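Readers outside the structure-tokenisation community will struggle with the description of the input data as it stands. Showing the layout once, in full, would remove most of the difficulty. For illustration, here is how one protein appears when written out as sequence plus structure tokens:
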Amino acid sequence: MKHALPLTRRDMLRHSAGLLGSLALAAEASAQTANDYKALVCIFMFGANDHYNMVLPYDADSHAAYYAIRKGPIALGTNYDGIALARTHLAATALSKALPDGRQMALNPEMTALKGLFDAGRAGLVMNVGPLILPTTLAQYNAKSVPLPPKLFSHNDQQAYWQSTFKAEGAATGWGGRAADLWQSGNAKAALTCISVNGNAVFTSGQQALTYQMSTTGPSTVNAIKANSLFGSATAAAALKTLMTQSPAGIFASDYNQITRSALNTYDALLAAVGTTASATMNAWFPTSATNSLSAQLKMVARLIEKQAVLGLRRQVFLVGMGGFDLHDNLAVQHPVLLNRLSQASKEFDDAMQGLGMGQMVTSFTASDFGRTLSSNGDGSDHGWGSHHVVMGGAVRGGNFYGKAPQIGLTHSEQVGSGRLLPSTSVEQLAAELSRWMGVSASDMATVLPNGKNFDLYKLGMFA
């Protein structure tokens, strides 16, 4: 996502440093201290995940309502009637715990690995969460009597709003980055406080904490400088390094070169810590990483977490992601593949964290642009609003549902048309509990979540 003009000086620095694949500035603002280690990992599903086919109603009455709306005249994919899954295909992934009102739920048949995490108490489901400015009823939505997030149902804008909590496309900071601003001065390698293994990200961008971008194979750098050869010339490479790392008089150039020096130095330390290849043990924890891009990204995150003590890190925020969820058509064929990859990669990452003895110290969660319509457009579903998400980790009170599960239908008061869910839980409420688990104090929460004051925070109970 690109920044809207005009760009601030900080925006320019962020974009310029991104060309190196490494963005780093030492924190100079308020700080919080920590003696332990914790990491927060955002798994973003780009394109808007169809939550109705990820977390499905399983009790007979609710499933019948779902099936009647989504079924079609022909089977569009294996186990599907239209875009509806028959109840007989959900027995293996039916969840043992019911909702407070007695309704039963099931995961998609491709998510057996994630069901295992739920049953083991290492994953929970957040029901109907999405961007809000104020708690909003259907009557208020219809009357336009309360402010609404801008540009609802727009991919880029809602990706930015989910990650920033207060601004659509053009947002410069995310709530993960703003939380990291408080901690990065306590990290020996401050540049590694916020890391994205999925390109530039709003979520991991703070005022001081900037996104350090990596690939699934490791850190990036300026090859000419590291190889000491530019167009075959060591002299040219040395001149380039001087230009990029000297301390010129101009403010912009001085800050840019400060970031460059930090990025180059961080590359050396990071490469020394994690090496160029994963260990045999790490590869064994991630058996699908060669064919599953999310697994490969999470493997890199695991390699970094494994070396947090060597790098002197106390708090880290990560972003990984996968695309392909904008399924207006071919949903019954493509969506199961995506959910299988999400489920398997999540289980592999949990296995790695437990294997490293870090299971209680790392929490991951899913996010997406928005949910989708309950009604079918024939071969897929359209843009929605609220959606269901997963929170995982040893510290999570797993095996539970958080928030209020909506009814299944097209006319009830928890949807705004075609089954587009009106969120009953705001992103702020989810983010507040994750941030508090990371150690953000109540007094600093307003900085991390400017609209948090509008909501009843800490009511989900995701952590003991």
Observations:
- The domain at 9-217+276-454 is CATH 3.40.720 (Alkaline Phosphatase, subunit A).
